[in-house]
Write a structure and sequence with these properties.
Ribosomal Protein S5, domain 2; 288 residues; four-stranded mixed sheet; 8 helices; 16% strand; single chain; two-stranded antiparallel ribbon; alpha+beta
Length: 288
């Protein structure tokens, strides 16, 4: 079991190069990946997303990459047409103002668009440096998610134990509930008919109420749900969605028992189960 909330940071320094990778993850129903990097690294985004998707199944993951490379070759481009146009315009202006001065080279070079510098940015060369640092940061993130997930799992299983213990209490007092139904039916017939009780009618009415109010099926289903919950926790790397679904089914059975039972001990056990289940559902919001 892993948590969806974690943080990781890695950096690397080489001659003329500096690189940092920062990763934050939060809880989310689906996998959402956000990459924050310089525009010249945009070609690497598919590879970055693929690395993250290989490690995270659910959660909102934000990745920030900062990369500076002072060793990149620089290419200087001269715009001859722009330079000639500036020289002509400056010359015309000097002539119009009757200034005996020709446009100098420094003056023309200072004009916008005459010289343009471009760095030779090789995405493949950048990826060779970024990928190992990104994977190291993801390793740290994975360890953090697993560490936090272990504590979450321990807390969830402690509340599952409360559910299982409360279910035993319910099962123990279920026969008392059925006996109370039989006693109440017979008392009502005796109140109306006195000693002229029709045993067959009493049995028929009792059977109808027992079918309506018995909780044996709910107990059986809850027992199966608890076993499946514990098994899913142990065997599934990302059990969050399945466990959330099981919690919905468990909640339905607990509510049914609570609505059917007039026995005080069962009602108290239902309250304990609802409280434990709510704690589990709260924790599952952050489980991958």
């Amino acid at each position: 079991m892993k948590s969806m909330t974690a943080y990781a940071y890695r950096e690397a320094q080489e001659a003329g190069c500096s690189l940092s990778v920062e990763i934050r993850s939060y809880n989310s129903r689906f996998l959402e990946i956000y990459v924050n990097a310089a525009p010249h690294l945009s070609a690497l985004e598919p590879g970055i997303r693929e690395c993250i998707a290989g490690r995270c199944i659910r959660g909102k993951v934000e990745v920030g990459i900062r990369f500076r490379d002072s060793n990149s070759p620089v290419k200087v481009l001269l715009n001859r047409e722009a330079a000639a146009a500036y020289a002509e315009a400056i010359g015309n202006l000097a002539e119009a103002l009757r200034i005996a001065e020709k446009p100098s080279l420094s003056m023309i070079l200072g004009c916008e668009g005459v010289l343009e510098a471009e760095k030779d940015r090789d995405a493949d060369r950048y990826w060779v440096r970024i990928e190992p640092v990104l994977k190291a940061a993801l390793d740290d993130l994975d360890l953090e998610r697993a560490r936090e997930g272990k504590h979450t799992e321990e807390d969830i299983l402690s509340h599952l134990a409360i559910l299982e213990s409360s279910l035993k209490t319910v099962a123990c007092f279920a026969p008392r509930m059925e006996e109370a139904i039989r006693t109440n039916i017979r008392a009502r017939f005796a109140e109306v008919l006195g000693n002229q009780i029709d045993e067959n009618r009493v049995l028929a009415e009792t059977a109808v109420l027992l079918m309506k109010h018995t909780i044996s099926e709910e107990i059986s289903r809850l027992s199966a749900h608890f076993a499946e919950f514990r098994a899913e926790t142990g065997r599934n790397r990302s059990p969050g969605k399945k466990l959330d679904f099981l919690c919905q089914e468990i909640n339905r059975e607990i509510n049914t028992i609570g609505s059917k039972s007039p026995v005080l001990e069962i009602s108290r056990a239902v309250v304990d189960m609802k409280n434990a289940l709510e704690n589990i559902r709260e924790q599952l919001r952050n489980v991958e």
